[in-house]
Design goal:
Spore Coat Polysaccharide Biosynthesis Protein SpsA, Chain A, 2 domains, nine-stranded mixed β-sheet, 33% helix, globular
């Protein structure tokens, strides 16, 4: 089976316009994501963008790029169009977040291994929460899974709810996981989910993966211990550069 990694990258982010082109230690963020993805076992890596400025940068560093519609509502939809535009045929797709410049290739390999299983249509990753700030932040997506590692629910609220315990005790008495936003899809499953209309739970939580669960699809989860750094706002660039310095010292 052949697996392609697609990096959705749009220019018009409301909170950080031009984010894929932001420089991190002198190198565009999209280039760092592309180079990290290229170290994995993926058969190919492609950037899916809606902006010629991003495409120009990708082509200058020697990467592959596909132009897509600027009106997509999600990265999943952009991945679906990019897959259709590729000349090669791929059995599965890994959707790699374009705002994680230091994503670990081992995490990409982990979801590739999951999606290559015959019984897996959709896959993603989870990491155990260790900080109370993350547990109670609506910006950190939490999840619960069954004993087979399949997702049961995703929420911006802490789940499960620890009844009869003070919030300060939750992390010490319970086990909580956050969602790591890398997705893998069998190609036919990607076409299916991209054509599904929004659902009530998805709208309530603003989480597209709930649409897939509401439609009866199974999301297989792998658990990772690797911590990533994502870029949401211009101020996060400094955080990413500190992360890079720490990583260099460990090597």
């Amino acid at each position: 089976m052949k697996v392609v990694g697609i990096i959705p990258a749009r220019y018009a982010s409301t909170r950080f316009p031009g984010k894929p082109l932001a420089l991190i230690k002198g190198k565009p963020m999209i280039q760092r994501v592309y180079e990290q993805a290229s170290l994995s076992k993926l058969d190919a890596v492609v950037v899916a963008t809606d902006d010629a400025r991003i495409a120009d940068v990708v082509e200058r560093f020697g990467g592959r790029c596909v132009m897509t519609d600027p009106n997509h509502r999600s990265g999943t939809d952009r991945c679906r169009e990019a897959l259709e535009r590729l000349e090669e045929q791929y059995d599965a797709v890994v959707n790699i977040q374009g705002d994680e410049p230091f994503i670990d290739p081992a995490q990409i390999n982990q979801v590739v291994d999951l999606i290559l299983r015959d019984d897996t249509l959709l896959a993603s990753l989870a990491k155990r929460i260790e900080a109370e700030e993350e547990l109670f932040s609506p910006n950190t997506v939490k999840l619960v899974m069954d004993k087979q590692g399949n997702a049961l629910y995703f929420s911006r609220n802490p789940i499960p709810y620890m009844r009869n315990l003070d919030r300060e005790e939750w992390l010490t008495k319970g086990e909580f996981y956050k969602h790591i936003g890398i997705y893998a899809y069998k190609s036919d499953a990607l076409h299916r989910i991209a054509s599904m209309p929004p659902t009530a739970l998805e709208t309530a939580e603003s989480l597209e993966q709930l649409r897939w669960l509401e439609n009866g699809l199974t999301i297989r989860l792998g658990v990772t211990e690797v911590e990533n750094v994502s870029i949401d706002l211009p101020g996060d660039i400094e955080k990413a550069e500190r992360f890079a310095d720490k990583r260099m010292k460990k090597q």
